[in-house]
Amino acid sequence: MAAEQTLILVKPDAVARGLIGEVLSRIERKGYRIEALEMRTLERTVAEEHYAEHVERPFFGELVDFITGGPLVALCVAGEDAVVGMRSIIGATNPIEAAPGSIRGDFATVIGENLVHGSDSAESAKRELGIFFPGRF
Ligand SMILES: Nc1nc2c(ncn2[C@@H]2O[C@H](COP(=O)(O)OP(=O)(O)OP(=O)(O)O)[C@@H](O)[C@H]2O)c(=O)[nH]1
Ligand SMILES: [Mg+2]
């Protein structure tokens, strides 16, 4: 057990569908704290930096188009084991495999529109929080 911070994105599809409140409510109900929150539309350069690990993947262009396609909400979420805990609340990457009760399991059907991002390790969280909230965490 360890107190951790993680970067969460309420992606443009979730914002367009009116799910900001639903996502924030699930985070708070679980017992995690929202330590920072900003709505913004990403520049392509910021999106490419955030998803740099996927640059060689065939869907990279689509991924950047999607994440820059409208406003998103970036959050710093904190609490015990927040990285793994938030990945559990979010659910599996492919919404068809995501457990009912998770955000993707309850609200999404396609992998390219899976509503929420959560950092996949403490190291990723540190890097990603530096991109979205420079100098703050
Ligand atoms: N179109 C398409 N998109 C994919 C595929 N695999 C992953 N993605 C998208 O790329 C994003 C990043 O992939 P991953 O980092 O492996 O998955 P993840 O950690 O569950 O998702 P994020 O929290 O968004 O990083 C996913 O959320 C998907 O939206 C794929 O095979 N096809
Ligand atoms: Mg990921």
Structural write-up:
The chain has 7 helices and 4 strands. By secondary structure, the protein is an alpha+beta fold. The protein has a single domain, classed as Nucleoside diphosphate kinase-like domain (Alpha-Beta Plaits, 2-Layer Sandwich), CATH 3.30.70. It has helices at 12-16, 20-30, 44-50, 60-67, 82-90, 103-107, 122-132; strands spanning 3-10, 33-40, 72-80, 116-118. The structure holds guanosine-5'-triphosphate and magnesium ion. Guanosine-5'-triphosphate is lined by residues 54, 59, 62-63, 93, 111-112, 114, 117-118, 120.
Summarize the structure.
With 137 residues, this protein is an alpha+beta fold.
Quickly list its features.
137 residues, Alpha-Beta Plaits, 7 helices, 4 strands, binds guanosine-5'-triphosphate, binds magnesium ion
Give the helix/strand class: alpha+beta
Strand content: 15-25%
Largest sheet entry: 4 strands, antiparallel
Query: How many H/I helical runs?
Result: 7
Note poorly predicted spans: none
CATH class category label: Alpha Beta
Overall pLDDT: 97
Instruction: List the quaternary state of the chains.
Output: single chain
**Biggest sheet: strand arrangement:** 2-3-1-4
**CATH structural architecture:** 2-Layer Sandwich
